[in-house]
């Protein structure tokens, strides 16, 4: 009888302890389940957490997100619809809600959600990127306007550069696919998309120098002043690629370009974080390794792996440098 009483008392105290958990503590527990991919348990705990604190935005967001990961899209939408009406809804709320509509094969509603979010958060690069992607899926090529706007207002967000560089690679454009691609690589050097972008840059330079005299491009009235300045200086280097585009020839071209750019009024007129980064690689003796990393890796991966074996010190210095700094384009350096 006494043992039974003690057992019941123990169960009672366990139940009390569980019920005494705060919403914040339950949220942390749920996030642990979420990281393990155990979405049903995360949902169970989050429902209890939100019952304790119905106004907590982060709990509500995670509840809807776990329904989404569990592929219960209608439940996820039920959670997110009221979230979108909240004054404190952030861009992630609109991103996830849009993704839910896409999972439900409803791109038009997804588009509406992103546009609604941009009215409230007009400097969200993430929402411009999502809107561009959903337009692109619908074969609406005004998608590029969204990616460009995202680059302009939120230059630290990388995916707009990635999508824009892919877009321009499909057009006759010869400058922005190169510039946007290289900016993306510097923001996300370890990205799984880096090999795709390196190839776009390589092919972009081939297209650029296929024109024997870039002055013809420079004088195109459709080119803005920045592009004309870029092409004018790049044209001076065209004889350096007469034997083809390789990492070695591109190191020479880009070295001469940087030296000429910074000896001209362009450096002051068009400050460029990308060109500053290239100059830093040059000054610190890493520019050859950097160009090998882009061009040889894109052109001939076994050759690049062999280069790494023979130049392990240079490779490691570049890798350490890329891991040890954050590359960010300042607001205002938008010239398109």
Layout of strands and helices, then pairs:
Layout: H1 2-19, H2 23-35, H3 39-52, H4 57-69, H5 73-84, H6 91-103, H7 107-120, H8 125-137, H9 143-153, H10 159-169, H11 176-187, H12 194-210, H13 215-218, H14 225-235, H15 247-262, H16 266-269, H17 273-283, H18 287-299, H19 301-310, H20 312-323
Q: What is the β-strand count?
A: 0
Number of helices: 20
Quaternary structure type: single chain
Largest sheet: none
> Spans with pLDDT under 50 lasting ≥5 residues?
1-19
Which radius of gyration do the C-alpha atoms yield? 26 Å
Helix content: over 70%
Order of helices and strands: HHHHHHHHHHHHHHHHHHHH
Large-scale geometry: elongated
Report the β-strand fraction as a percent range: under 5%
Mean pLDDT: 91
Gap from first CA to last CA: 83 Å
Structural class assignment: mainly alpha
Could you give a short description of this structure?
By secondary structure, the protein is an all-alpha fold.
What does this structure look like?
The chain is built from 20 helices and no strands. With 336 residues, it is mainly alpha-helical. The longest helix is centred in the first third of the chain and has 18 residues.
